[in-house]
Request: fold
Amino acid sequence: MIIKFLGAAREVTGSKHLIITQKNKKILFDCGLYQGKGLETDSLNRDLGFDPKEIDHIILSHAHIDHSGLIPYIYKLGFRGSVVCTSATRDLCAIMLADSGAIHEADTISFNKKRALQGLPPVEPLYTRKDAISCMELFISVAYDRKFYIDENIKVKFTNSGHMLGSGVVLLEVNETDGLKKVAYTGDIGRKSNKILDSPKPFPQADYLITEATYGDRLHKDDDEAREDLLKAIYHTCVAKKGKLIIPSFSVGRTQEIVYTLNQLFNEGKLPKIDIFVDSPLSVNATDIFRMHQECFNEEILHEMHTDPDPFGFDKLFYVRTVAESKKINERKEPCVVISASGMMEAGRVKHHLANTISNERNSILAVGYCAPTTLGAKILRGDKEVSIHGIVYPVRAEIFRIDSYSGHGDYKEMEEYISCQSKSKLKKIFIVHGEYESQLVYKEYLEGKGYKNIEIPEKGYWTAL
Reply:
């Protein structure tokens, strides 16, 4: 068996890890899109490092675009194998990949207008909404904790990782000529105290472990402190300054956690009487899918639903679907909260809201998750005095706040606590992926201090025999 690391290697995007068995079965752990890397992004996404027609299976850990977003592209190029995932992951991919395809089409139209002015020929989008819809025919849903036989020599099992709705640690078992080999891939590891989802569950013992390190050098704040920080940001911006609070948020997972927290604050009578808008069609559709998959919820939210059957809706909360409704928010003079995608502030309606608010000191921007170093979100968070949005430079005068505890990723202590279900003596090797290199080095040292051995941080293109 050979493993080759083709993405999310010493960086936090584009997850793709290729397994090649002795019988030449080719299996991908995830097939993610590179995001937030400026002009590099398109070439990185088109340079796959494999022939899509030769891939037999994709084992998909969860639906986030940096893990699933290239599936329509390789479908377009001839991939016709299976995509094995949980049922909630399949349902989310059905809306998220279509949304991604629409974004690629819209971005390509804008890009081609600029190329035409330069006398250059037009380019095609990476993939279209139609490609994204068509690729869903390849998806196979598997329940948590059930072994699924891909063939007589290969089986897979998903264990809840608590990162997002439907996310799972993958255990791949392959019968090779030199014996049974077990490879576990954590995908992204969630937090023990997730506000909505059930906590991560221990996964079966593996020989080889591939695991993430997004927050390999950081610790999260206490959840109660994060809840109070959110409330303070709302009062400070919307009540004291009478401005707008913009919360860039990932449409799936983060948005629902924030809405659920606001729902609790509303029920407790602590939320000021201001309008709150969720301005993202994808967020609206994703919230409907959350309502369908209560089997993924934790006991706390299920208990609350006995008295509040809709934890994602309350008076003064408005879900925005149309562009016209979104534009009206920017025309408002009254204080309000706007939750809008994307979380890294790289695409979607949030960029229009930022353009309309970022230069007014009455307003505030609250980041609630990870922003890759080259993204607009990262530039704003590190204190840049000016930023470019849609090609126009805006001075940054709005106040900037950050709450990391709303991240769906565990911090380094939480991640280590989770993988401690594995026997250190039985793990032959650990590969650390999905993290900035500096964070990975810190996490590697931390794991070694806990007694883990044979840890590697592969770079892109690295391969090894297992």
